[in-house]
Amino acid sequence: MIKKILIANRGEIAVRIIRACRELGIETVAVYSETDAEALHTQLADSAICIGPASATESYLNMERIISATIISGADAIHPGFGFLSENSKFAKLCYDCNITFIGPSYEVIENLGNKSNAKTTMKNAGVPVIEGSKDPIIDIEEGRKIAGEIGYPVIIKAVLGGGGKGMRIANSAAEFNGAFSNAKKESKMAFSDDRMYIEKYIENPRHIEFQILADKYGNVVHLGERECSIQRNHQKLLEEAPSSAISSSLRNKMGEVAVNGAKAAKYENAGTIEFLLDEDGSFYFMEMNTRIQVEHPVTEEVTGIDLIKEQIRIAEGDKMNLKQEDIVITGHAIECRINAEDPEENFRPSPGEIKEYHMPGGNGIRIDSAIYQGIKISPYYDSMIAKIIVHGKDRKEAIRKMDSALGELVINGIKTNTHFQHEIVNHKNFKDGNFTIKFIDEM
Ligand code: ADP
Description:
Layout: E1 4-7, H1 11-24, E2 27-33, H2 40-44, E3 47-52, H3 63-73, E4 77-79, H4 89-97, E5 101-102, H5 107-114, H6 116-125, H7 141-151, E6 155-159, E7 168-171, H8 174-192, E8 197-201, E9 207-215, E10 221-233, E11 236-242, H9 249-265, E12 270-278, E13 284-290, H10 297-304, H11 308-316, E14 333-340, E15 342-343, E16 349-350, E17 353-354, E18 357-359, E19 366-370, E20 377-378, E21 385-393, H12 396-409, E22 411-413, H13 419-426, H14 429-432, H15 440-443
Parallel strand pairs: 1-2, 1-4, 2-3, 4-5
Antiparallel strand pairs: 6-7, 6-8, 9-10, 9-12, 10-11, 11-14, 12-13, 14-21, 15-16, 17-20, 18-22, 19-21
Helix pairs in contact: 4-5, 7-8, 12-13
The structure holds adenosine-5'-diphosphate.
Adenosine-5'-diphosphate binds at residues 131, 156, 158, 162-166, 168, 200-203, 206, 208, 232, 235, 275, 277, 287-288, 438.
């Protein structure tokens, strides 16, 4: 049994995990950087340890300090949240070597699936449809050009270790290839200290549909339905919903079964997400598997009634999952809007600063996952997402109305946020009609 969990993260996800632990009667330890001394997660945890200066490399990404904090505090497990060290196989291995339970899959699985080329091979061998693309990582531009020519334009060039839309470029023709490849490579080197790339066919008008998976240590795997994540800016998600208006129940069963088979083939354990692109003709392709809890997990929780963080902890404790596929029922419709400290008028440039005035919406079916309060200073050092507004309605129409109303009540002054932009999205005719692809925001 896990008695004390150290949360190797900050912001709303750290708060979300603290709350789940409290409900399970598990003690919590927060870690914080000097700039986060007043942060909500630092204040809410049972104890808190400062692990270094603001810069993430010296704090939330510093494995040695986090492991030391775990040992000093006597915690027996680490929850990595998302981002930071959550998909770092070296960190998961370090936990294992130090006899600390890492709440997530094994380091071998993280390493295999974190490499987009390897992940595609694993899935392909399990009969999961994958997008046509390069087999091995590419470094050389001429080799890349040759492969892109064979695949046929347009192609998308991605960083092998990519994430968060970084190190990704589209080349519509051979003339665009060299520029796109060099830029993607440069960005990947900066973000991931690695410049291996892979190339795949660019699908013109797909939707991003992902399946939530839960898998225990004994080979039991279920899926919790899909999330629709097509509303993106710069390949980063902004609004997510469950279920997707593009998925019939027969397609859900089919894609869900494929996702479960993929997870089994990868020897997956704990909560994970299989991301697909759904093409206009109904064909779907594996894109990647995320080996951690996702930002958008609350929409799945709302429509299934399953607390994913608690499930993660129980699975890590070695519990046998008593959920069967037929027990999972999707009820109503949920939408999440990510509220970011950024300026949509200035290409979503981050807008750090002090929150001077603050009011959060409430009411039936409105959930707020956030870590902000009046007077807190939003740091320029970390991700710009500061809150998530989640609504649950009896159907999509009601959920959209609830979100419209919730966004109307939301007040965050002192910094710029994307609240107004989110409001425009939920009131857009094509959004309301469920008629959109990943190009929705570009075409707004
Ligand atoms: P990351 O790991 O950086 O988030 P993903 O591989 O998950 O990258 O892709 C992010 C987004 O990029 C997708 O949701 C989709 O919008 C777009 N994308 C990725 N691959 C393709 C593709 N082959 N064709 C069209 N769009 C793609």
